[in-house]
Amino acid sequence: MKKKVLSVLLAATMVASVLAGCGSAAQTAAPAAEPAAAEESAPAEDTAAADTAAADTAAADTADAAADTAAADTAAPAASGGGTYALVTKSAGNPFMERMASGFQEAVEASGGTVVIQNPEAATPDAQISVVQSLISQGVSSIAVDGNDANALTAVLTEAKDAGIKILTLDSDVAPDTRTVYCNQAGVSQIGQTLMEAVYDLTGGEGDWAILSATSQATNQNAWIDAMKSLMESDSKYAKLNLVEVAYGDDEPQKSTDQTQALLQNYPDLKVICAPTTVGIAAAAKVLQDQKSSVKLTGLGLPSEMAEYIGDDDAHSCPYMYLWNPIDLGRLAGYTSIALVDGSITGAAGDTFTAGELGSYTIEEIDGSTQIILGPPFKFDPSNIDEWKSVY
Amino acid sequence: MKKKSIGQFLSGSREASLVIVLAVLLIVVGIINPSFLSFTNIRQIFLNNTLTFLMALGMLCVMLTAGIDISITSTLAFAGMSIGLMQKYNILHNTFLLFIIGALIGVVCGFLNGLIIAKGNVAPIICTMGFMYIWRGMAYVISNNNWASGMDVAGFSDFGKDGAPGPYIILIVAYVLFFVIMKWTRFGRRIYAVGSNLEAAKVSGINVDSTLISVYTIMGLLAGLAGVLSVSIYASAQPNMQYGKEMDVIAACVIGGVSMSGGRGSVTGTFLGALIIGIISKALPMVNIPNFWQNLIKGVIILAVVILNVVTQRTMERQNLLRREM
Amino acid sequence: MAEDLILELKGITKIFPGVKALNNVHFQLRRGEVHALMGENGAGKSTFIKVITGVHAAEEGHMFLEGSEVHFKGPKDAQEAGIAAVYQHPTSYPTLSVTENIFMGHEDIKSGMIQWRSMNAMAQKLLDSLDADFKPTDEVGTLTIAQQQMVEIAKALSTNAKIIILDEPTAALTANESEKLYEIVERLRDEGKSIIFISHRFEDMYRLATRVTVFRDSQYIGTYDVNGISNADLIKAMVGREITDMYPKEDIKPGDEIFRIEGMTRAGYFKDVSFDVKAGEIIGLTGLVGAGRTETIESVCGITKPDSGKIFLEGKEITIKEPLDAMKAGIILLPEDRQKQGLILSWGLGRNVTLPIQEELAKNGFNDEKKERNLAKERLEEVDTKAVTIFQPASSLSGGNQQKVVVAKALAQSNMKVVIMDEPTKGIDVGAKKEIYEIMGQLAKKGYGIIMISSEMPEIIGMADRIFVMCNGRVSGCLQRSEVTQERILELSMEKGDAKKGGAA
Amino acid sequence: MAGRSGREISAVPESGIKEKLVSWEGALVLILVGVNILGVVISPNYNLNNVLREMPRYLAEIFMMFGMGYILVLGDIDISVGALVCLAGTVTVLSSNAGAPFIVAVVICLLVGLLGGMLNGFIATHFTELPTMIVTLGTQIIFRGIAEVLFETWGNGGGTASMTDTKGLMLLAKKVGPFPISFFCVIIVGIIMITVLAKTTFGRKLYAIGSNKTAAYYAGIKVERIRFICYSLLGLLAGLCALFLLTATFGSNTTTGQGFEMEVIAMCVFGGIATTGGKGNLIGGFIAAFIIVCLRIALGQRNINTQVILVIIGLMLIISVLVPSVSSALAAKRKKAGT
Q1: Which value does ipTM take for this structure?
Q2: Best exposed site among A98, A167, C148, D194 by fewest CB in 10 Å?
Q3: Domain containing B309: what range?
Q4: How far is B299 from chain D (nearest CA, A)?
């Protein structure tokens, strides 16, 4: 009997401590967000110049740059409303997502909006569903999602849309009819083309090459791989290239390492590995460089992760690689969110708005869905890697 | 003395049957892809599975006491992330000190496990499940969504570079040390005694609680070291590193003949078990098994090996009974 | 007194939750003597031993070792003080080698390393002196109980202890092995060691001991010179009353055959075992430990699968594939190990009693708690269980009362025809023992067939109408109540040529 | 053979209400109330509608909690169920996309779960020497492995597939007032599972096996058959979980169900079911499941770092299992001080 009373008392104190713990966590979480944000934005400001420089070079190719400057004036003043703008990343603990989130935050806060950034506990659509559900409860104005799965989020996003929340995607898309617009870092075919070209260049036009991808269900990875495959079939230029295997490293360093080593051993004539994933490319780069292999590497990678491995000589495994600026991608999503919420765009193809210092963008109809293209992938090579490795 | 039949020899010695499984595996894989048996490849099997090899030793100790620890990869991530961030933010770059710090973090994590399990009388799987969530969460929290990347850990990662002797030396030292401790020291035998018969251990004056605490502390130490090694070998630290790999470690031990009910298992067996796990994960991509089939085959092999062991044990026991004269 | 006392205990009281296991007991051990400690099971001998060896701390009393008072905080202290014990139930490490079991806690260590080679050699020497037929490197779990007992003795010998306690060491040994043990004990005594010897066998006591101390119901009764006390007086001291009324066996004229097995065989355990029971008859099944008695019965009851054999109930052959089949047929087993096989210790008494029949009492698969409670109460009262409520956990009862719960559980099964009791009085106190015998007698009177497995010669002789003796997996003979003597049973229990084979079982 | 001493043994159960309140389940109810108060305090959006709306994904897991409760009461463990959810979901999606009518797909979903559970049960009961942890570790890898193979063979490439015909699923995802259908299903399944465990002979047998397998076997209980049934049942519930998960995700991928097994075990343990078997009941598990779900929803609405939530759950788990031993230690100490 006494024992039971005691256990209840203990349980009660436990509740109390949980309550206290949560209470304090909640209290500290709110103020903590602001100084953190301030700190984040300070260095971001410093690099803003560099960013815009990059954006400029990047945007140089985009044909619609000129047309947008006209619309810039009208869109700018409208983007000063309140509201809460949410970003759902792929998962916690990923620096690419962190950079993207900081860009998003910067853009929204500059316009006076409140930012909610949610990192799901794991890189699964299930975890994202919970997070989006919670955001619906909170009644946010818009949700920008980096989808972990093309279709799994359909139901929850439809529900959010029905609740009057503007939905957009960035980085990795979901089913087109569940979101208004997709902030695409670069067109799928554009990335496919760029990577194919790099493979062509590094192989010298002929020979064996392989792809090291992330997980088998990653939407954007699969889209890029498909784009590369169809390009090889359609363009006779690549006829002498032989894609020997698509290996999956599951975005785990250990498995990626195993897979890279297996590729090297299974295909002695391998010339190039293309890894369109930030984890995979870093793991593969380390394997190749440690083994002093003659196989060259390219793909998509974070400069900060890859600085060790980029170089023209034989001591470095990766001559050059590509990526877009995640901060800018976040910013673009941030501005797009604001524009959608304040009604300056509806998400229809042809809508034009100004994304702050990024300049003006137009919503395009690509492959039957509405997208905003950030710009072509940016090339990182020995000449610029030192400049970028500390940025993201 | 009667001569033992081959069957008796095999069932009598778990290690012997493992060697045969291993030999069969190697021959099959070697025939399909001869380059598998190259020196480089064999070397890489050890390098890529250093963490499994290392942590399996701790798991051996834990399982000998009839316990289990599923928090190890969370401890690994917490320790690894900690020392990764120390380098990222330029707090410390001394390889030796980083190893010490990582190991210490592991020791603290393991000690907490041991304390709660021994003194609080909590089932090992539950206690370590709680810490599995806690340390993994802490790894994420301290990372603040950052990784320590190749650039951050530049000098440090030379230790675990492909071709560098560091990880092999650690493995060899650890295995020799454990081989000696588990067989030739009083401490090692106490671990066996506690798992073999807890009540008898108490009666014969063995301090059961302190044995349990030290066993989990050792496990923590090895998990911490594995965290440091992981950062060094893969030249990066992410909060989700080695997620779910604790099951590989447990599987390695079980295949190696370590009994989950305690008291039975050897360092040699553990080594062979870990080697089988390592060979499977290394060999599957190399024998042209399509990517999607690899997990299925890995699971089937693991299950088949443990079931095979049960079946041979049963057959041998039955034959022994039939041989008994009446 | 100018006695050279090596060990003296005064006024020892040990209390377990709810039970006074030792109540103000005394004990004196002279240097170089073999001192027998006797008493019925549950008299407190084992607890007393555990107090001496530091496993339990006594609530009251003093303990003097070579004249100075000692307080053992744990088994280690006792070990270091030169006290070694061989417990009744082997406290071995089943997964470890014989050598390791022998030297656990006092390994031969040089510069931090265990010296296996020399330890194995020492172990071999010890085993040789015991004439053991196994190797130091064998895993203890693979040995027989008798062999494990030898390991325990070797373990005690290995510590070079001044005082060696042997808790029923001969219980599982063959006559040959026992004789070997006597020789060892005598040798040790001659070397100046002091030995406390616990045994149920009077022959052990007469053969070895010079003095005997008797405990009864947790109390000290007295210490006697072995030569100065008659057998009858000693038994009276142990039991507390005349033994004549111990076995209330009435002469019942057995009815028709109710149960019979033919040619039961399970490779490695028993071979071609046949026996039969008549209604109202008590059959004794005896033999040495490991002779295959329990194994046979377990196969009969469907616990294990026999390789061949036929079972007849009331003349009709029945097939039993699992325990439920046997129970449905009315063959009820009271298993040997009541704590592990007979009861769920953490459960209340009531639930234990109704476990096998809950389905009969249930309505549409739902437990009828009220019916269960009433039935359990009835049955528990019927066997006079000393309990307060049917909800108290079985673990809170003494061994005797636990056994009564097991009996109540059997009685609750209304279709009972044959009762098989495996060591029904093992480890229970005198009073309860007698009550069990009474119940057994009443069951026989009611016309049930009863099979009693027992190693205790007196109860087999006292209770059984016919006695089947098993030896090495076979029935070696059947004795009628009129012709039975201890010698006859022992003779049949021993393997022919036992002496030649060196006691190998 | 009437008791000569005429001793009376009480058969009157100790009167209930007070004991019931002062028990772990009572404490759990208090905690649940506390968590809901916490939710209302820290989040302005914490109300019935929102909580119920956010709940379906978690509700799917609770189905398995009941089955896992049975397995844990038996003294076993099953860590393959997360992977089994993935396999069942995958087969359902692929078969539906291949043209199977919705009702057939539902049956297939449950059937795959059942078969997976039966496989676990078969191995666990035929190779009793193997710890169930190892058996289910093996099948865990195998189940997910089969799902991966299926994706490759019949999927549209990549380890993900979504249902093209979602009409049936939409029906299942419907709500009655603010309550989703799955909520009612959880309640119904819950009531059945709780009652069977607490009130029937079958449930009693589970406790018997979990408390003392040998004694249960000697008492005529078909131990292995019951274990087989429980594994199959858990498999079936994993199928149900997969089905209701589909109403939230409309598709399956290789990560579906990852970590579910541990979450479900955590719910059971927090609810007072011991992994050593024979102890605890599903009412505790049921309340505990809702505590965890409500806590997650409340903290989620406050945008607390998802990983911090996991740390809190880990702490709760450890504290909850420490409570009994700490309280008994304290009681013993007090007793000692008192005498």
Answers
A1: 0.84
A2: D194
A3: 12-28+39-320
A4: 5
